[in-house]
Amino acid sequence: MSVVWGPDAPSGRDRLAARQAALVDALVAGGPPPDGFDTARLDATRRALLRKRAGLAAESWPLLAASFGEGWPAVFARHRDGHEPVGALRDGWDVARAVTGLTGGAAAELAARESAFRYDGRRAPRPRLRTRLRRRRRR
């Protein structure tokens, strides 16, 4: 590691921010483990965070999660590991779209969301025009 002195030297705050960003990237976005961190502990923490995200997504997508039963956290992890969190609704939506052969309630849940909202996988879901018009008529 080279040391930079003078006005271009990063401050202690900048160095800390860079290390924190590298840690977050390793935990939730598939980044490499930062220097000085125990990879086994990082991996255990990453898996725990994925389980927590799976639980939150199950609250937004109860029929999807129920369709996989006890296997839901593993299904969620298979599709979202290495992807940064985008919120429970979007995480679950991305899993629902990635899983092939959804049936029953899970397929109906996805179809209902797809008919009411537009979601391109990059930006937050937005209500479709007819959904917005129905909401206005109710007011």
UniProtKB/TrEMBL annotation:
Taxonomically, the superkingdom here is: Bacteria
Q: Which residues form the SCO6045-like C-terminal domain?
A: 17-99
Q: What is this protein called?
A: SCO6045-like C-terminal domain-containing protein
